[in-house]
Design a protein that fits this description.
Length: 202
């Protein structure tokens, strides 16, 4: 039995547009105007794909992205907290410029060797992997011979990709822009069929 998983990074959020770290659900302002257009374009990718279920992080930006796909495909959405945005600790609410100025060493470590340099006060890549990968495998087992979609965040997306196809040391190897989709066939081994961003709006 084969389960096909469409792993999706949410469309552009208002925080993304400001280059701001946003890991608090209560402060999530959802998709930007560009992101809302992206969500409609992204949904078109699934026009001819029958989805058994869509799973979404509880954040507004992921739910809005999932909603666009669900409306077009008439698919049920399940909110799954285990695919939430990772805790970004002392960087929450700060822009990249503010972080570079206040945390220069931590910023360099996070960008050049994130496996060994987690965000100060935030989740490490190993901690993200420990909560996300077992749930990913559970969802695969619960949908034999079906297609499912998981709408999540940059760090979760890349951790799953590294865990299945590489290692956490290669976390920065995946250029996961907003609205990126990885089509993963879960067979005897995971097989990456596609890794694309099917939207034109950037």
């Amino acid at each position: 039995m084969v389960t096909k998983v469409y792993l999706i990074r949410h469309c552009q959020s208002r925080a993304n547009a400001k280059r701001q770290y946003s890991c608090s659900i209560k402060d999530d302002l959802g998709l930007s105007d560009v992101g809302k257009i992206q969500a409609k374009e992204l949904a078109q990718f699934f026009t001819n794909i029958k989805l058994g279920k869509i799973y979404s992080s509880p954040f507004l930006r992921t739910r809005q992205t999932a909603d666009a796909i669900a409306r077009l495909t008439k698919t049920e959405i399940g909110v799954d907290d285990l695919f939430r945005e990772p805790n970004c600790g002392e960087w929450n609410g700060r822009t990249e410029d503010e972080i570079r100025e206040k945390f220069p060493e931590a910023w360099r470590g996070w960008h050049y060797d994130p496996q060994n340099n987690p965000i100060p006060g935030g989740e490490s890549l190993l901690e993200i992997e420990a909560r996300v990968l077992p749930q990913f495998q559970r969802l695969v087992r619960s949908h034999p011979d079906e297609n499912i979609a998981i709408v999540t965040h940059y760090c979760v997306f890349n951790v799953v990709m590294c865990s299945l196809f590489s290692s956490l040391a290669n976390f920065r190897s995946f250029d996961t822009t907003n609205a990126s989709v990885a089509e993963i066939s879960m067979e005897n081994v995971p097989r990456l069929k596609k890794y694309i961003s099917p939207v034109k709006t950037k």
